[in-house]
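**Backbone shape codes:**
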Amino acid sequence: MTQLQTRLTGLAGGTRPATRTLGVHPTVRFLLRRLGAAVLLLFVLSLVVFTLSTIAPGDPARAYVGANASNAAVAEARARLGLDDPFLVRYARFVGHALTGDLGRSLRTRHPVTADLAAFLPATVELVLTAFVLALVLGALFAVSGALRWPGGAVGRGVLLLLATAPPFLLAIVGVVVFFGSLGWLPAGGVGDFEDPGPFGMQALDSLLHGQADAWADAIWHLALPSVVLAVAPAVAVGRVLRASLDTVLGMDHVRTARSKGLTERRVLVGHVVRNAIGPALSMAGLQLGFMFAGVVVVEQVFSWPGIGNYLAASIPVADFPAIAGVTLVLGAVYVITNTVVDLLQALADPRVSAT
């Protein structure tokens, strides 16, 4: 009777039996939230880019037909390009075409912008990824040498900090003057010679796949100087954040316990410190990767690198708005997607992130 009375009392409102709450897994919810934010940011970016291209000085129709064309020809080109339509109609058409991969036709090259980007983007990706890997290596050395007090590490960190204080264009010019003009160690620009273009459009990768050692070495030789110039500032930014995290984690109780057990500093760092300290450095690395894609425009111009930076620099003076908008959207998409991937990597490294 006692158990029956207890159950009846619970059903009457005294206590309720425990029920399992059904819902979305925190990791899935975190993923959906980040993807939704990325999509929203891309739409906002498209609106900003289209608005700026609309209010910017210059006449796309005249740029399309030429500076010496008659007013009638300009008016006809304006009607054919749909520039007389209302703003919202043109923006909806712009977004609709962009979602299908149609970014318009360049007013300068007369080629589809997507085709131009497909031709120029691989060289930029090759340069940025090379610089990013180099930045991660330098940043890790910067952080670990400081956290573990390596002998002579202060000299390397001082040199890296000194180089990071210079603007990229100045660092690039000085690099060309010193390593090409004075010492003759490195080439001043270009991507080298590669007779058989590969499927990826990246000389270092394609020459490696073709087994052409000389072409691969030549590609690395041409990548060396621009990738170092592009990697210096991100390396310092990532290294500073990682060192601060390492210093914080190295002072925690579980690390002192691991040391008291007789573990070497290397095993303590790898097994007990890195995973807990990597989160902030991942966030900074994602930000720096986006900044590197944005800053590659200047570096490509100095080193005559045939990427989207040079393509954008040639499109701005002639008011080639489809090309400018296409490059800006691609760079913005890379930045947003990179930071979304970094957030997901942080959630994998530290499950507590997805619970927030």
